[in-house]
Write a structure and sequence with these properties.
disordered C terminus; mainly alpha
Length: 163
């Protein structure tokens, strides 16, 4: 049940993202933040802490991407802004993971994929298109909602005993 609920939220978020960027002309640079907020919402609604952990890491990265794109931060510090955003996102994700016993692997992998996508985007036009990321959200939604998911695959982890 949790997986289906998470999948539904991811699907709805993917549709909202497609409308915002594809139809309403929201800046494409909002993509990482939209994906992160979508994952965070899916985790909160479904009770899957691992999705919240992933979302928090992507939220930090996405906020940094938006700051750089909108020229909000100091000029000439794009790399530092990206690094700081991802580091803060991963730090908050790690704090939640530690508190709940959830794994941090999904957040680390998501951060690496986000950075790799940013690095490769100038050479791979596909990565700079909103349609790619809308499809990615739909595929993620299908993965979360797939039949036959077991409770262990959706659990956020076992809370650790208090010291």
């Amino acid at each position: 049940m949790q997986g289906r609920l998470a999948g539904l939220v991811l699907l709805a978020g993917g549709a909202a993202y497609a409308v915002a960027v594809g139809v309403l002309d929201a800046p494409f640079a909002a993509t990482p933040l939209a994906v992160g907020l979508n994952a965070t919402a899916a985790g909160l609604v479904s009770g899957q802490v691992r999705l919240v952990v992933i979302g928090l890491a992507l939220d930090g990265w996405g906020a940094a991407v938006l700051v750089v794109d909108q020229d909000v931060g100091p000029s000439g510090r794009s790399a530092a802004t990206y690094s700081l955003g991802l580091a803060v996102g991963l730090l908050v994700a790690a704090l939640l993971a530690r508190r709940t016993g959830a794994g941090l692997g999904g957040a680390l992998c998501s951060g690496a994929v986000a950075a790799a996508a940013a690095y490769l985007a100038p050479d791979l036009d596909l990565l700079g298109r909103w349609e790619t990321w809308a499809v990615a959200l739909v595929l993620w939604a299908a993965w979360e909602a797939r039949p036959g998911r077991t409770a262990s695959a959706t659990a956020g982890g076992t809370p650790r005993p208090s010291p």
